[in-house]
Every structure is written in structure tokens, then in C-alpha cells.
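Extended Data, panel c. Modelled sequence:
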Amino acid sequence: MMPRPTPAPDAPLYLVHNPGSGKGQASQALASLQRECDAAGRKLHGFAIDDRHPPQDQARAAVAAARPTGGIVVVAGGDGTINAVAQAVLGSGCAFGVLPQGTFNYFGRNHGIPTETDEAVKSLLANAPVAVQVGLVNDRVFLVNASMGLYATLLEDREVFKSRYGRSRWMALCAAFWTLTRRHRPWNLKLSTRDGEKVVSTSSLFVGNNALQFEDIGVTDGEALEHGALAGVLVRPRGVLSQLGLVLNGFLRKLDRDDDVQTLSFRSLTAEPTRGSRRRSVKVAADGEIERMEMPLRFRVAPEPLWLIKPVP
């Protein structure tokens, strides 16, 4: 494990941001951080995301610049952008700072980072790095959740709704209802943990690394996250009306009361299709970003923590 980074009081900052995101929030974060750095005599270097410079490339460039100077890699954005930068920072030995800009901001809120930009900047410059747990799915980082099956499809459809109708919790609910009215083929999976193996039929496998999100949907197994584990949710295949009721229970924070929902906790879980299945790849959503992965999927706690600058509880 890399030792805990100890940035100097005048350590430079390397900010990855998207000037065109949101309603100018990232530009506001950059301006606020620049003012505070000027006042403190600290250098700030910007890595802007655009069509020619995707988040992954800018994140790697920021890490490469920060490592020899003992600098701090900072990201301004939502959970998806934060994920891309965290992927580059994990295991690099760099401290990691976050200025939350997204709709839900599960990662920032879960770690007590202020949602108001100026307060988040002050917190970033005043606090020290703390080790926080990271999840991996086939070596792909997730900070909030990773999922396959129906939930991944729901997220994919939700982005279409957001691009057309805007971002809100109610719009996310409408997108979910629209998704669930379509027919979805269930997955027959063999799940393996250190406690053994079992075969399940499920419409969705959801693995979380964020206690706040589990609290929001009413799943008590989220407490396992405080003890170095990940928490999983399996949903048995069901009809359209039952699926709509499931979404409503999640929206009302009562998901644990649903008889077709099974929860589990683990440090490592392997999911693979049962014998005879021809489905060897699957769409996986990691912090809202969709990509196709080859089966089997291995969900696990990363061996290295992310050294996040956050307020002490």
C-alpha cells in the first residue's frame, strides 16, 4: 500500500474540470479556487475537459504533473467525472480533492464535502487526506455503485431523458417507469464469495460503495460499508407492475420491505453466467458511466484506498 500523502501547506493544485458542464458551475469552482490559491500563495494548474481532451486523458495528465511536485489532484464535476479522475489517482500516491458539481453528489455528500462551491474550496485547502474505500469491477473503479442488468439499462435510459427534459429526482423516476414498462430478459448467474457459491435468477445486480445512497433507497445492508465491505442488491425477475412498485419503494426509501429484493455483503464477489448461457458480455454502469465488460465480473474492495481530502467527522 502506498504511504499516506502529506501535502505541504503550499502544495500546488491540479484541477480537472469541464468549463461547459452544468450552468457554469465548473467555471465558478475554478474562479473560486484561483482566488483562494492566490490569497494563500499556492499555484493552481487547470486541465480543462473538452472534445479533444476527455476526462481520462486530463486526469492522467494531472496525476503525471502532480506526482513529482507533491501536488494535489482536484476534480470539479459530478459523480461520473469524479470517477474518471479517481481512476487515475488511485495508487498514484497523490492526494485527491473534490469540488462536487453534480445532481445527486453522492460521493461528496457521503464524505461531508460541502455542496456550496466556496465552502468546498475552503474545506479543500484546510483539511488533510483521509483513506476512503474504493470499489472495483474488473479493475474499473467505482466510488458510488456498479451494476449490471436492469439497473444499468435504467441509467442508460435516464441519461436520454435528462438530455431531453433536464435533471431532477422526479425526472429520474419518470425515466425509471418508462424503462420498466419494456420487457427485459433476466440473468441466470453463479455468484461466488468466500462463503461459497449459489445460482440466482435476477433482473439486476447492484453493488454499492456509498452508505448515503443505500440510506436513500432504504437498504440497511449499507452499514457493511463502514466495515470494509461492499453491499449488493439482487432483484428477482418480476412483472411490469411489480417492477414499478419496486421503483416506488426505492423512491420512498422502503426497498428493504420488498420480498423480491435480496441483499448481501462481501469483500469480493464473482458473477458469471450459468452453464449453457451464451451471454458472455454485459453492459455495466460504474458511477453512471456505461461500458461493456466481458464476463465473469469480479466486484471487490480495492487493495489501495483513495486519499481524499475531507473534513474530519
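The mean pLDDT is 86. This feature is highlighted in the accompanying rendering.
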